[in-house]
């Protein structure tokens, strides 16, 4: 059975496939599930996976990913609202909010939600770093303002970022579990 990865981003589907190579095929499904308002990425991922499975009327299991950027000095903002904040406030102005803080630590967290219709499981991965003035042209989203080991994620090439990223770690944990099923 193939896994249907619900995402608008074909790079994420390719990344998932690279982890699951030799285990299963990953098919990208661009379904726009309802992002419930919640403080919890787990709750959003569980609901998203189950809604997509119910609506997309097929038997192959569903995988969704929800990511948030949690800034310590801002009490974890934007967290589960990261997509909305990127669209409205933007990445440059988030940097402006953090610029005057002494503590600029932040963390990305990705929660993958998997369901096969019988059971639903979640898998997480995190990456700790620092918010900095935007640098680099690669990546997407908040990558230009997130520094890890002296480089922003936007300064890394894709393989370098994927090897250390929150989503990469969540995919590795998921793959280990799935391979045992
Ligand atoms: P999907 O279609 O895959 O669901 P999305 O952008 O709606 O994409 P995510 O939960 O992956 O959903 O992302 C939430 C926000 O976090 C959004 O603003 C992204 O741009 C940003 N983001 C996600 N992963 C990121 C990464 O690896 N680096 C920088 N920003 C990221
Ligand atoms: Na998502």
Automatic annotation (TrEMBL):
Among InterPro entries, the record links this protein to: ITPase-like_fam, RdgB/HAM1
The UniProt entry's GO CC annotations, sorted and at most eight, read: cytoplasm
Q: Does the keyword Hydrolase apply?
A: yes
> Which Gene Ontology terms cover its molecular function?
nucleoside triphosphate diphosphatase activity
Note the superkingdom of the native organism. Answer: Archaea
What's one GO BP annotation on this UniProt entry?
A: nucleoside triphosphate catabolic process
Where does the sequence pass through the membrane?
A: none
Entries under Gene3D superfamilies matching the protein: 3.90.950.10
Q: Which UniProt keywords apply?
A: Hydrolase
Q: Pfam families this protein is in?
A: Ham1p_like
Record-stated family? Belongs to the HAM1 NTPase family.
Its name, as the record gives it, is: RdgB/HAM1 family non-canonical purine NTP pyrophosphatase
Organism, by scientific name, is Natrialba aegyptia DSM 13077
Source species taxonomy? Archaea, Methanobacteriati, Methanobacteriota, Stenosarchaea group, Halobacteria
């Amino acid at each position: 059975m193939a896994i249907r990865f619900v995402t608008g981003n074909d790079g994420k589907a390719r990344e998932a496939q690279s982890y699951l190579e030799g285990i299963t095929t990953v098919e990208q499904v661009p379904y726009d599930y309802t992002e419930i308002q919640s403080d919890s990425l787990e709750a959003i991922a569980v609901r998203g996976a189950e809604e997509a499975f119910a609506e997309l009327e097929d038997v192959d299991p569903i995988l969704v990913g929800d990511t948030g950027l949690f800034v310590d000095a801002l009490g974890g903002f934007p967290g589960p609202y990261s997509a909305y904040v990127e669209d409205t406030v933007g990445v440059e102005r988030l940097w402006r909010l953090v610029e005057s803080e002494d503590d600029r630590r932040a963390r990305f967290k990705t929660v993958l939600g998997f369901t096969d219709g019988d059971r639903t499981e979640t898998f997480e991965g995190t990456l700790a770093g620092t918010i900095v003035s935007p640098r680099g042209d690669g990546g997407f989203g908040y990558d230009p303002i997130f520094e890890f080991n002296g480089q922003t994620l936007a300064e890394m090439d894709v393989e370098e970022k994927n090897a250390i990223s929150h989503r990469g770690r969540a995919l590795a944990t998921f793959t280990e579990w799935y391979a045992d099923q």
